[in-house]
Amino acid sequence: MTTLTLPADYAQIPGKKLQLPDDIGPVLMHCCCAPCSSAMIEACLRDGIRPTLFYYNPNIHPRAEYEVRKNELSRFAEALGLAWVDADYDREAWFEATRGLAHEPERGARCMRCFSLRMDVTARYAAQHDFSLFTTTLASSRWKDLNQVTLAGQQAAERYPATRYWAQDWRKNGLSVRKDALIKTIGFYQQQYCGCVYSLRDTNKWRQEHGRPPIEPGTGK
């Protein structure tokens, strides 16, 4: 596994200070993928916060795509010197959580169920391992409904009162622009769809309608 090379100015560029609770302790950051985590982690490191990364994404299909994305996060964590947790690839739990919602649109009820499952597992791990806060890189994606992501995190925290959800708009204050720049500079694996079997289906349908070849999961094509 080759090592990622970070830009020389990583975590060195001044930015608006993050909004944090007064009694912040260890932070668990659920990471959907390395690209979405890039600017969020940088902002944390800049402000003296070293999050533990948590990879729980049973939505990603097929397994080949899942493994490539997981390995990319592993390389990123190694380059940063951050601890990360490789959680279970529980596909059955994801399909059960989203049962009957195969034809829901992006940002619909299926996405909410998906977020809720992933935030519940993250919150449970945080509570069991003494993390005072948890957050998610899903909140940095412009393709996701931020209100859905925030609600899923807050509801999960209510079920595990030993931890709290760190709600913040990770798209503002230049973070989205910085994320796009980091993705290009670092050269992350190029993801071609959200990750789930339904987004793969819908993206391939769009590609077919526009005369483009289908996605080859696990290859970045």
UniProtKB/TrEMBL annotation:
InterPro entries linked: QueH
One of its GO biological process terms is: tRNA queuosine(34) biosynthetic process
Superkingdom of origin organism? Bacteria
**What positions belong to coiled-coil segments?**
none
What is the main EC category here? oxidoreductase
**Listed HAMAP family:** QueH
UniProt-recorded Gene Ontology molecular function terms: 4 iron, 4 sulfur cluster binding; epoxyqueuosine reductase activity; metal ion binding
Which UniProt keywords are listed?
A: 4Fe-4S, Disulfide bond, Iron, Iron-sulfur, Metal-binding, Oxidoreductase, Queuosine biosynthesis, Redox-active center, tRNA processing
Keyword Ribosomal protein: yes or no?
Answer: no
Show the disulfide pairing. Answer: C194-C196
**Pfam families, from UniProt?**
QueH
Residue positions annotated to bind [4Fe-4S] cluster are C32, C33, C111, C114
Record has Disulfide bond as a keyword: yes
Q: Which reaction does it catalyse?
A: epoxyqueuosine(34) in tRNA + AH2 = queuosine(34) in tRNA + A + H2O
Pathway per its UniProt entry is: tRNA modification; tRNA-queuosine biosynthesis
Please give the family membership noted in the entry: Belongs to the QueH family.
What protein is this chain from? Answer: Epoxyqueuosine reductase QueH
The EC code for this enzyme is: 1.17.99.6
Q: What does this protein do?
A: Catalyzes the conversion of epoxyqueuosine (oQ) to queuosine (Q), which is a hypermodified base found in the wobble positions of tRNA(Asp), tRNA(Asn), tRNA(His) and tRNA(Tyr).
